[in-house]
């Protein structure tokens, strides 16, 4: 059976684009298992701690994966080992504030993360092991200035999500550990040029600030009120009250209701929730 794109979207609970613009799409419904995979301790919390706090409060299971322990990020007289240990501790404290289940460090040297087959395989293995539904990472393809590690972890994770984690002939050695291929159909990209998915964190902005302030080696001030004021300014959206974190949402794979049918092999779409055509944060 061949279905048109509007039919596919309708069956998937969404609506078709009108006049070249994405029509409203439903928000991510939970509770789900989410893995946030970024480069350095503090990356996830500065971009996404409000959303993480919200999802944890809603019963989601959230894991953090950091490619490095941030062993170059200081102007202080510290060794790389001292700094890495400090930043791992800061990240664990922040994760605890938010309700994150577990923090995993992959141990790559800060500044030298590359999208290698090995890194992709490590990510694929974690996605299988923890049965992840939603992945949050950096947008590796953003234009303009981007940190080497942010770019490369974003690319490695995106390549892990599609198609390596879902096709069993990739990383066949995982089968010996009892880890099966599985689809991961939702990707949220932080730091994207054109965010189209906005999470209202108004009720969680103070928790976000508490998490950010755990990163003592990385913040310019430990003043809670000042940090709160700055975060409130950053999270504004034009024409909207409240505070938001912004992502680009990528949906991968065929809609669940079509799995029984001989529909087109895959639907790749980038969805926009209600009011997502404006972006100001
Ligand atoms: Zn970073």
Summarize the structure in words.
- This protein has 281 residues and is α/β, with parallel strands linked by helices.
- It has a single domain, classed as 3-Layer(aba) Sandwich (Rossmann fold).
- It has 7 helices and 7 strands.
- The chain has helices spanning 5-11, 43-57, 80-98, 117-129, 148-164, 205-213, 224-234; strands at residues 33-38, 61-68, 102-108, 134-138, 186-190, 197-200, 244-251.
- A 7-stranded mixed β-sheet has the order 3-2-1-4-5-7-6, with helices on both faces.
- The longest helix is centred in the N-terminal third of the chain and has 19 residues, at 80-98.
- It is globular, with a radius of gyration of 19 Å.
- It starts with a helix and ends in a 30-residue tail after the last strand.
- The structure holds zinc ion.
- The site of zinc ion has 5 residues, from loops.
According to DSSP, the number of beta strands is 7
CATH homologous superfamily designation: LmbE-like
Mean pLDDT reading: 86
The first-level CATH class is given as Alpha Beta
CATH architecture: 3-Layer(aba) Sandwich
CATH topology: Rossmann fold
Low-confidence stretches: 1-20, 261-281
As laid out across the biggest beta sheet, the strand order is 3-2-1-4-5-7-6
Structural class: alpha/beta
Residue share in β-strands: 15-25%
Distance between the termini: 42 Å
The gross shape turns out to be: globular
Number of helices: 7
What is the CA-atom radius of gyration, in angstroms? 19 Å
The share of residues in helices is 25-40%
Task: Please provide the ordered H/E string of secondary-structure elements.
Answer: HEHEHEHEHEEHHE
Number of domains: 1
Sheet with the most strands, sense and barrel status = 7 strands, mixed
């Amino acid at each position: 059976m061949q279905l048109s794109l509007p039919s596919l979207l309708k069956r998937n609970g969404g609506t078709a684009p009108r006049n070249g613009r994405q029509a409203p799409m439903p928000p991510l419904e939970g509770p789900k298992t989410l893995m946030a995979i970024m480069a350095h301790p503090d990356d996830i919390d500065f971009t996404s701690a409000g959303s993480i706090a919200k999802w944890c409060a809603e019963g989601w299971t959230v894991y953090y994966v950091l490619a490095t322990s941030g062993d170059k990020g200081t102007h202080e007289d510290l060794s790389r080992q001292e700094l890495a240990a400090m930043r791992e501790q800061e990240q664990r404290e922040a994760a605890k504030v938010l309700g994150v289940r577990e923090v995993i460090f992959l141990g790559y040297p800060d500044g030298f993360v590359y999208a290698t087959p090995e890194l992709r395989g490590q990510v694929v293995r974690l996605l299988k092991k923890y049965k992840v539904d939603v992945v949050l990472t950096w947008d590796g393809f953003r234009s303009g200035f981007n940190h080497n590690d942010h770019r490369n972890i974003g690319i490695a994770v995106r390549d892990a999500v599609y198609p390596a984690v879902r096709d069993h002939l990739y990383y066949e050695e995982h089968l010996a550990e009892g880890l099966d291929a599985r689809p991961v159909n939702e990707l949220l990209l932080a730091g994207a040029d054109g965010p189209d998915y906005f999470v209202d964190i108004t009720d969680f902005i103070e928790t976000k600030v508490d998490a950010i302030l755990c990163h003592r080696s990385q913040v310019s001030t430990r003043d809670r009120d000042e940090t709160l004021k700055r975060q409130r300014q950053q999270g504004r959206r034009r024409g909207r009250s409240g505070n938001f974190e912004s992502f680009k949402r990528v949906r991968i794979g065929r809609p669940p209701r079509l799995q029984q049918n001989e529909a087109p092999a895959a639907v790749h779409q980038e969805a926009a929730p209600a009011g997502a055509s404006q972006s100001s944060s």
